[in-house]
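Lab notebook, page 48
Experiment: co-folding of the full assembly
Goal: obtain a model of how the components sit together before planning crosslinking
Operator: M.T.
Materials (sequences as entered):
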Amino acid sequence: MNLIDAIGSFGFSILRLSTPIIFAALACTVTKKAGLLNMSVEGMMLTAALAGVLVSAVTQSVILGILGAVAAGCAVGLIVSTVNLVGKSELYLTCIAMNLIATGGTTFALYMITGTKGTTFSYLPSLAVPNIDIPLIKDIPLLGRIVSGHSVLTYLAFLTALLTWVLIFKTRLGLRLRSVGENANAAQSVGVSVTRIQTYAYIIAGAIGGLGGAFMSMSYVSWFSREMVAGRGFIGLSANNIANGNPFIALLFSIIFGSADATSNVLQLTDAGMAYFIKMLPYVITIVSMVIMSLLEINRRKKMKQQVVAKAIAELHLEGKDH
Amino acid sequence: MSSLLRVEHLTKVYSNGFVANKDINFAVEPSEIHALVGENGAGKTTLMRILFGMEDFQGGSIYIQEKPIVPKSPLDAIGHGIGMIHQHFMLVPSLSVAENIVLGMEPVKGGFFDYEEAVRATEETAKKYRFDDLNVRSKVADISVGSMQKVEILKALFRGAKVLIMDEPTAVLTPQETRELFEQLRRLKEQGHSIIFISHKLEEIMELCDRVTILRKGECLGTYDIQDMTQESISRLMIGRDVELKFARETHDTGNDVLKVQNLIVVGDDGKRKVDNVSFHVQRGEVVGIAGVEGSGQSQLASAIAGSGEYHYGSVVLNDLEVSGQSVRSMREKGMAYIPEDRMKDGATVNQSVRDNIIADRYYDPKFRKGIFLNRKAIDEFVNRCIKDFEIACDDADQPVRMLSGGNIQKVVVAREFTSGCNFILAEQPTRGIDVGTTEMIRRRIISMSHENQVGTLLISADLNELLEVSDRILVMYKGKITASFRNMEEVNEEILGEYMLGVKKMSEEEMEGQA
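Observation: model returned without errors.
Model output:
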């Protein structure tokens, strides 16, 4: 295998591995803009992954399979937001519980349907989302190798970033979403229902997370296996935290984290220890960048206060009041 | 002439039985700027929250243009033409001015938010009410506080408000911005709008308003034409003249300084000077009172002294020890006792027992220890004596503090603080919201601690009666500065204090030194 080929296939695998992270990050972006952290994205994706396999196996339709996954994601979003907003429960505990239910529930369903606890492979005739070649671009040497031939869902992930941006910044719902996230009292005072807007945010997040789940079980592989999301939801959550609600920066960091995944996969063949180290990097990057951001804020505040104090001291000396 | 807004016999009783508003009557005429004044806790805020649909009420009625209404929510109130400009702006910083104005009733074109239409509609309203120099495309985060207030006013007008309620609108403004606001409000008045103007600044009320309604302790004292009033007559009505229960004042010796505060400056997170070059001292055996309208910097001063808040310049010296950087424990060991403002949050751990709360600052004392274990017998003996001495009404020492009444919770705090062997007490609102009996006990204890045990006390209180009864010396804080000092308690009364607290008067350096 020559170098161009190697780079090409590495680039291809970056985009492929970034896809679920992009969906996860965007699912978190929507709720983040409405002022809530979406820790349940992992559960959304896992539930959706199973739903996609089941619906496509039963109906023998890829489209219905994807829609089934999206519906499952939305259902998880609706449950979390209802429990949190109507039931007034602690959001993070609700999300953690939801993730645990998703893990246990999907494994249970898997066992009930197939009689095994591992995978639906060879038990259920589920379908895969087709890959598409992009005309013209597929013939460009390196570039074609990297960007052409991906799953429809991979292209959809990039499109979703754009759509999320449009939703947040160009629609009425987006305006309300941002106002609720930034100053809920202000939104409430002009008759915007905070509960309703946050519920919408969670349902939209569920739909996007659902696409991520569909990618896992209908593109990445064409079956469901237990705990197959394996932390990708949390990595997306981290990418979104760094991006602070900007869908394009969330996209960028998802790809950076996807690259870490791809690098780790390559190293798995040669240096397994290093591979695990690199798998850890997205989380390390998240923690480090959060510390840096908060230090910058502390520093800004300190400087502002120093300026005010300096001015006050100058006034004191001017008036000769310093005893 | 029919009133624009009229309130009749309005009564509000909170679920805990506290009567916040009692039989309030007042009317706002068209094209009128109507001041509403009263001390903290007089019921102004509750009244405004009722009018704006944020609180329900138990009796009476509200009329808009002689039509009875019951505002159920802020949205409902706006629908009836009542707008409110809150002290804390209800704005979304990252959105533009136009987006903030149309929020909740956004124009839509082809499924998308129509920003250009929002800008057009906002500019039209701004022009109608002559809000010049407001760039409606700017982000709210980038505009000045004065402009933010304009956006708030515009938001209410855009929604068709005829009556604007403004809660302390000038508190956040510079003098120039205040002048600009007043011109704006006068223009609105000419256009037929009415304004309910809530303020502590009597000077501004005299300048701007047509009439004034005065509240005291939840009751309405009546509405007066401004031209018949003076700042002094308003403040006299606001503060009232209740019979004061004076303690016998005896002369006693005071000694060297226990607390020395010099050139203290505290800057808040908003970049404002909360405490602005404050210097004073407290001697042994002396009670120094600090008076001031809430938010004049007293709480920042208290937390700087208590060591729980930072300060940015100057020094706080407690018994020759610079407070900055000291741990709470070392300050307590140096002789500090502290009764914090919020007894439920800072004064006591409410889920723990009376016993645990009383020994919280001394469980490590060898007297209460047996090796690495607690000496339960010694502790119980001490705690039971405290319960008896301070008349704490509890089942036993094991009862969790949250089960006690407010007055008894404060007794637990006081029992701990007054038995710690301190020589300095920082008492922040020690009797707020507490029954008369406990109040008297706490005041007597403070006095006897200072006179008999030579303890120095700094008493921060909103209760002027309390300050006048207990203090040997009173300082007044206004906008972070000390603006008055009184040594002779015979020469001072609530009206005089009120004038300094509201910034009507200010002592010069020389006058204060003459008193010190």
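Interpretation: The interface with chain A takes residues 74-75, 86, 89-95, 99-100, 103-106, 108, 111-113, 155, 159, 262-263, 265, 267, 269, 271-273, 276-277, 279, 312-313, 509 of chain B (CB under 8 Å).
Next step: discuss with group before ordering constructs.
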